[in-house]
Amino acid sequence: MAREFSTVGVVGLGIQGAGVAEVFARAGVAVVGVEVDLDALERGRALVEHSTERAVAGGKLTEVERDQLLGRITYTARLADLADCDLVVEAVTENLELKAGVFAEVDRITPPDTVLATNTSSLSVTEIGVHTGRPERVIGMHFFNPAPVLKLVEVVRTVVTEPDVITDVENLLRRIGKTPLVIGDRAGFLANSLLFSYLNHAVLMYEQRYATREDLDAAMKYGCGYPMGPLALLDLIGLDIASEILDTMYKQSRDRLHAPAPLLKQMITAGMLGRKTGRGFYTYQ
Ligand code: CAA
């Protein structure tokens, strides 16, 4: 029988985690959002509030639905408050040690049949899962930014993930309006593997002064119908995240398409991470 997931925990309420919390809450699921401290919780809450304001402005939600959505999310700085969750989605910084620590702790706190998912973009789900006593209930659940808008979720199975867990998660994702795609555990999975070679290529062309940032973005937006050009998209994703994804893919594939463009590293060192720091390839207010 299909498993009902009624309470979902989300650990890490950055842009991705806040988006994931919003998606579940919008579909009527109770969400427990966890962050390290009260300041981070307030930032997470503000992200959900801002995003749902846009949804109302765009006619995607009514004011009443927005209030109900916001009312389904509780915010806490204690992982122990995840004790009643039947699914926990981890969305903390892309760092294996950090994620492994969160998984070990959540494994201790939650009932044995709780499904533990990671929103990692490029790290090995298998490696994260072995830090728990239930690797067969560990899965990748990779959302795309902005999570409330984009439909795809890559469901990453490892060699030990139980088939029932995959089916339950696929059904849940369909129930909340997403399009799941089940794939194996490989750096970059499917979409990022294709996308990031292209984004990296755009940075190299810009670095070599082959084209201006505006021309690069216009080419893909108006010539190929992409919603935004590659440099604008990198600013949205965050250059630090993009570089980590490329690094991980390059280590595994040794494909030079994945070797991060030197300019990316320089911009990161200079603090130009994209929208979140106010400056990347473009400047933001
Ligand atoms: N809930 C539901 N809908 C919402 C919403 C919310 N919280 N916020 C906005 N929307 C809707 C809007 O109403 C609007 O709908 P319509 O198109 O029907 O009018 C739509 O979403 C677009 O929103 P905006 O008008 O506010 O913004 P925009 O038109 O400038 O689009 C964008 C912005 C959605 C980011 C679009 O440019 C886009 O899809 N860009 C590509 C993003 C992309 O490629 N992401 C993948 C990155 S890679 C990744 O994420 C993987 C990783 O591991 C890092």
TrEMBL record:
Q: Which family does it belong to?
A: Belongs to the 3-hydroxyacyl-CoA dehydrogenase family.
Using the record's annotation, list all stretches that form the 3-hydroxyacyl-CoA dehydrogenase NAD binding domain: 7-185
Give the top-rank taxon of the lineage listed in the UniProt record for this protein. Bacteria
What is the protein name stated in its UniProt record?
A: 3-hydroxybutyryl-CoA dehydrogenase
Q: Indicate the segments forming the 3-hydroxyacyl-CoA dehydrogenase C-terminal domain, all copies.
A: 188-284
Parent sequence residues shown: 1 to 285 of 591
